[in-house]
Design brief:
Helix content of chain A: over 70%
Oligomer: heterodimer
Strand content of chain B: 25-35%
Shape of chain B: globular
Radius of gyration of chain B: 23 Å
Number of strands of chain B: 14
Largest sheet of chain B: 6 strands, mixed
CATH superfamily of the largest domain in chain B: P-loop containing nucleotide triphosphate hydrolases
CATH architecture of chain A: Orthogonal Bundle
Number of helices of chain A: 9
Order of helices and strands of chain B: EEEHEEHEHHHEHEHEEHHEHEEHE
Radius of gyration of chain A: 20 Å
Shape of chain A: elongated
Distance between the termini of chain A: 50 Å
Strand order of the largest sheet of chain B: 6-7-8-3-9-10
Structural class of chain A: mainly alpha
Largest interface: A-B, 21 and 29 residues
Number of helices of chain B: 11
CATH class of the largest domain in chain B: Alpha Beta
CATH topology of the largest domain in chain B: Rossmann fold
Number of domains of chain B: 2
Number of domains of chain A: 1
Structural class of chain B: alpha/beta
Number of strands of chain A: 0
Order of helices and strands of chain A: HHHHHHHHH
Helix content of chain B: 25-40%
CATH class of chain A: Mainly Alpha
CATH topology of chain A: MetI-like fold
CATH architecture of the largest domain in chain B: 3-Layer(aba) Sandwich
Chain lengths: ~220, ~325
């Protein structure tokens, strides 16, 4: 039944996937969250309305989001070398993963912030709160469930991006599925890797949903 | 305390101005009401007071400061002296009652050690001492508005702005919130500006009122005067429901208005007897405007010496008008 399966390879691939996921998710949130906040604040009728800045940021985000991830992986090689000293392996995969996912997460953050009741922002303004106090004291706490839900969606999108990271030799479960399961017709490898990916996605969604429920006070 | 001098406000892409040539003064320590139908410009008017909107023309002075001319920092400083409550409460759903009330204190830079006791004091003031650790979603509408009031009072404002503060509440809760506002006005000397579309709210708590229609003040003055003797059609329409007086009167009917102690005296009966007129009461209401009792009757007088009866009624302090 599992004739082709090398459990050590599967273990290594699982670890690679988890490391890529954790690293890229961490940096995506770190970059995407402030980017999303700035996108929101510079929007029309918002606290720091700035048409040109908003248009430029929005365009930049759209450019990065429209480049297919495999292409991004290749064109980023010089920048990746500069950032992490190698363009190969797990470390080499993380910068392109972040550049692919951070703009996506920024949009989700922007959407979550738009969902915040305008009245709450007006109340904070009426109290004499500065934009900074409004962002940290009202906007982010109110949008937190949406921001966490966005991180869950981003994490799951990253799981499928990591499958393509095999192009730069990063390994991982998705890479195993493509190289052994698909290209060498080893159905058992395909089944096991896909099941493990499914378990990972299920686990992420479950944890994310739990966290959102815990944070929601509505 | 607050003064509008020929204030106009036109929003971009709007065909008509939201406010047009509004001039009014709110005295320190009074409860001032602005009433009008939706779209009359009430929300814009109240938002000009704390600079949430800036006037297109004219000057708004709040606590001595020209709101339209303040820079961002000075405007924030002014807003900390002006509390505001809202129709939909606008509480932070992610924070507890105590944290909601603590937020404006943090914003104003009050030292942490003082925030806890101050929050407890404010919640006790609005009767929510035991709800500090609940979240807004766990409270009733009236309780949410009490949190809103505690939050608005946190930095000891001189002025409280009420934006349709009772419009989302049931009649009984509305009464309780209005009583609380009256109490705060009396005990803290708080100047209150409230906007509403309900004449009952004005009648219960306001000293003076301005009636707003299509962006202009069409009538203003002491509440009893405006409420009992409305001049403008819009005011009449707003009063008609609240006053319980039928709009269609019998020809020749008179409207008699008794105020103060006269409300409880048998003036009409005595004068009818002396002058030999018969009267029939067509409609009427005896109630209070704030703490002052009043009675307003629509009567028709027949037989006897009607002219003398009218004269004696006027002499007794009853206002007689053609209904």
């Amino acid at each position: 039944m599992f004739a082709n399966i090398n459990w050590a390879d599967i273990g290594q691939a699982s670890l690679d996937t988890l490391v890529m996921l954790a690293g890229s998710l961490g940096f995506s949130v770190l970059l995407g969250l402030p980017l999303g906040v700035i996108l929101f604040l510079t929007g029309k009728g918002k606290l720091l309305e700035n048409g040109p800045a908003h248009a430029a940021l929005s365009f930049g985000v759209n450019v990065l989001r429209s480049v297919p991830f495999v292409i991004l992986l290749i064109v980023m090689i010089p920048l990746t070398m500069l950032l992490v000293g190698t363009s190969l392996g797990v470390a080499g995969a993380i910068p392109p993963l972040v550049v692919g996912a951070a703009p996506f997460y920024a949009r989700l953050v922007e959407t979550a912030l738009r969902e915040v009741d305008k009245g709450v922002i007006e109340a904070a303004q009426a109290m004499g709160a500065s934009p900074r106090q409004i962002v940290f004291g009202a906007l982010l706490p109110e949008a937190l469930p949406g921001i966490v839900a966005g991180a869950t969606v981003t994490a799951i999108a990253l799981v499928s991006y990591t499958a393509m990271a095999g192009v730069v030799g990063a390994g991982g479960l998705g890479d195993l599925a493509i190289r052994f399961g698909y290209q060498r017709f080893q159905t058992d490898v395909m089944v096991v890797t896909v099941l493990l990916l499914l378990a990972l996605v299920q686990g992420l969604q479950w944890a994310g949903d739990r966290l959102v429920i815990k944070l929601s006070r509505r | 305390m607050i003064s509008f001098q020929s204030v106009g406000k036109t929003f971009a892409r709007a065909s008509a101005p939201a406010l047009h040539d509004v001039t009014l003064k709110v005295q320190a320590g009074e409860v001032f009401g602005v009433i009008g139908q939706s779209g009359a410009g009430k929300s814009t008017l109240i938002r000009l007071i704390n600079g949430l909107e800036r006037p297109s023309v004219g000057t708004v002075l709040t606590d001595g400061e020209d709101v339209g001319a303040l820079d961002a920092g000075a405007l924030r400083a002014l807003r900390r002296r002006v509390g505001m409550i809202f129709q939909h409460f606008n509480l932070l759903s992610s924070k507890t009652v105590a944290e909601n009330v603590a937020y404006p204190l943090k914003v104003a830079g009050v030292p942490k050690a003082q925030i806890g006791p101050k929050v407890a004091e404010l919640l006790a003031r609005v009767g929510l001492g035991d709800q500090a650790h609940k979240y807004p979603a766990q409270l009733s509408g009236g309780q949410k508005q009490r949190v809103g009031i505690a939050r608005a009072l946190a930095n000891g404002p001189k002025i409280l702005l009420c934006d349709e503060a009772t419009s989302a509440l049931d009649p009984q809760t509305t009464e309780q919130i209005l009583d609380l506002l009256s109490e705060l006005n009396r005990e803290l000397g708080l100047t209150i500006v409230l906007i509403t579309h309900e004449m009952e709210v004005i009648r219960r708590v306001c000293h003076r009122v301005a009636v707003l229609d299509a962006g202009s003040v069409v009538e203003s003055g002491e509440v009893a005067e405006v409420f009992l003797h409305p001049q403008h059609a819009v005011t009449r329409a707003l009063v008609a429901d609240a006053a319980g007086l039928g709009a269609a009167a019998t020809p020749g009917a008179l409207r008699l208005t008794f105020r103060g102690q006269a409300t409880y005296e048998p003036i009409l009966g005595r004068i009818a007897r002396d002058t030999g007129v018969d009267y029939s009461i067509l409609a009427g209401r005896i109630d209070r405007i704030r703490d002052e009792p009043y009675g307003q009757l629509q009567v028709s007088l027949v037989g006897g010496d009607v002219a003398a009866a009218r004269e004696r009624l006027s002499a007794a302090g009853v206002r007689v008008e053609e209904a």
